[in-house]
Each structure stands twice: as C-alpha cells, then as structure tokens.
Amino acid sequence: MPEQAKYKLEGLLEALEIWERNNPASGVLKNVHAAIMDWALDRHTTPYQGVKRVFEAANLWRGRIPRTLHDGHVVFCMFWVEETTRTVRFDSFTTLSLPAD
User: Fold this and answer.
1) 3-state class (DSSP) for residue 35
2) Are 45 and 4 in contact (CB under 8 A)?
3) What ranges do the domains of the chain cover?
4) Which pLDDT band, with edges at 50, 70 and 90, does 71 fall under?
5) Which CATH number fits domain 8-97: 1.10.1760, 2.20.28, 3.40.1000, 3.30.2310?
6) Could you say which of 44, 63, 77, 89 has the lowest number of CB atoms within 10 Å?
7) Distance in angstroms (rounded) separating the CA atoms of residues 81 and 59
8) pTM of the predicted protein model
9) Alpha-carbon distances of 101 from 7, 32, 54, 64, rounded to whole Å
10) How far is CA 62 from the centre of its chain?
C-alpha cells in the first residue's frame, strides 16, 4: 500500500478556540467537538476529501463537517491548502443553520 501524503496542520487549536467562544452551545456538545476534531485531523492525509474549493480565493477550501448536526445546525470549516509546503492552515469553524451546502 502506498504511503499517504502527509500535510502539516496549522491553526487548528486557535480556530477551534474561537469557534467555541462564539458558539458556546455547540462547543460544549462532546459529540460535535469530537466529530470536528476527527474531521480536522483527517486533513493531515486527505485535505480535499468532502470539501469544495472557494473560487474567489486561490487555495481556500470549505466543507460541511459530518456528524455535527445538532438542533438544526451544522458546523462548517474554511481552510487553506498550500501544496508547496504541504500545509493545511485552518481559517475558521462556523455553526450554520440548515439548509447548508
């Protein structure tokens, strides 16, 4: 089996802390928090899986995070991928009302 690409993750904890401060009701839900961490850590090997490119900005991607549905809301993430340095830089996590795409 070929070795999977490894990307360095930057700004994850900072972006998560800001999300928790801005969304205290969502941030305290352990299952939502765990789903976000699992998804974010997967960006280490598969940064493009299940996300869409934001066409207005080069290298900016967005994705709805699976298993974060709660009280009619879901969590999205915006992040940058720098292929030259193999880096994923987390920009923000946001809780949005459904419908969300």
Assistant:
1) helix
2) yes
3) 8-97
4) confident
5) 3.30.2310
6) 44
7) 5
8) 0.88
9) 26, 18, 12, 7
10) 7
